[in-house]
Amino acid sequence: MIKMFKGVWSYPAYDFVGGPEKVEEMVNRLASYGFNLIIPAVKDERGLFVFKTSRGKRYPMVDEWDPLRKLVETAHNYGLEVHPWLCVFHEGEESIFLEEHPEYRALDIKGNPIKGNWACPGELEVQMHELELYKEVMENYDVDGVHLDYIRYANIDMCCCEKCKDIDKKLGIRLNELNRRHPKWPEWVELRIKNITTFVKRLREESKKYGLDVSAAVFSDYPRCMVNNGQDWVSWAEMKLVDHLFPMTYTQIVKEVKAATKNHVAQLKDTDILLAEGLAPWIPLKTSILIEEVKIAYLTGADGVIFYHYGSLTDEALESIKEFEEQI
Ligand SMILES: [Zn+2]
Questions:
Q1: 296: domain CATH number?
Q2: Which of 33, 121, 133, 316 lies 20 to 30 Å (CA to CA) from residue 108?
Q3: For residue 126, what are the domain limits?
């Protein structure tokens, strides 16, 4: 019998729509299957918040009760940990920050806002805004850690805001001429990596003050994400900036999970990071495929798995995972 690390991403605005009793129901269910960690979206992809902050719009439920506080209390009663999840540079369509500061909006090569409404990671003011949100959560809630998501550039086209264009010009780069054979390509890639890693360092410094862990959802395709998205998560692990890494290996192809996990395990072998493969029943996946993926991820060397997301986890899947843990 084994006990894998098991976590789940959750959307409180949907999972707890029935009120505080839904929190108890969820935590009880996860605890009975031996889960370790719940990651609730408290600043989601739309840019809406699940805690009271003056820095953004919130879901109406937050004015009626405090879903995050209730979740933390209940999870602790059952022995589970909670890492609130904030989408970092993906500010979302409902972002008040970018409405008030359009100058910080990340732009593509044509000068259009990046789809999803992103903020420019190279701007100090953007980094400070995102950091303040984490600080509010760490200060006001008895959480076990904090979770990073969208901690990257959207793509190769980002960012062409006025400030980034100035920096690129100084480097001798015009983004529309840039490609992998351009002599300045390595400098440009490094610049983007530095901007993203700087934020992770800043969060680490703050999290240390509260004695909290840092976890991150990262792209599965390392090292490509380092080049395309500025997301060098292996270096974060080597520098001890994070404690848990969750590569989002969202696929229906079991062999892909095996190859990706093999790579992640090898990349992190000299670190003491907890590695859990992010799997997505949400795609959707047949339960049989999901279970194969869970098995292959664990048997290939990951410490466990984490599911995207709670709303798509069936009892059938949970039972099958339990059987697997009991069999070996
Ligand atoms: Zn920019």
A1: 3.20.20.80
A2: 133
A3: 5-327
With the CA atoms of 92, 98, 104 and 108 taken in that order, what torsion angle do they form, in degrees rounded to the nearest 10?
A: 40
Both tokens of residue 166?
């100035």
Which residues have a beta carbon within 5 Å of ligand 1, which is an ion?
Answer: 120, 159, 161, 164
272 contacts: CB under 8 Å, gap ≥ 6: none
Cα of 148 from ligand 1 centre, angstroms: 20
Quote the pLDDT of residue 314: 97
CA 149 remoteness from chain centre: 3
Ligand 1 centroid to Cα of residue 178, in Å, is 16
Rounded CA-CA distance 7/3 in Å is 12
Whether the per-residue pLDDT at 276 is higher than 90: the answer is yes
Torsional sign, CA 74, 17, 7, 224: negative
CA of residue 260 to ligand 1 center, whole Å: 31
Residue 42 has pLDDT above 90, yes or no: yes
> Got the DSSP string for 249-269?
---S-HHHHHHHHHHHHHHTT
Q: Can the peptide bond before residue 84 be classed as cis, meaning omega within 30 degrees of 0?
A: no
pTM over 0.70: yes
DSSP of 15-41, one letter per residue?
HTTT-THHHHHHHHHHHHTT--EEEEE
Pick from 31, 40, 34: nearest CA to 9: 40
123 close to 163: Cβ distance less than 8 angstroms? yes
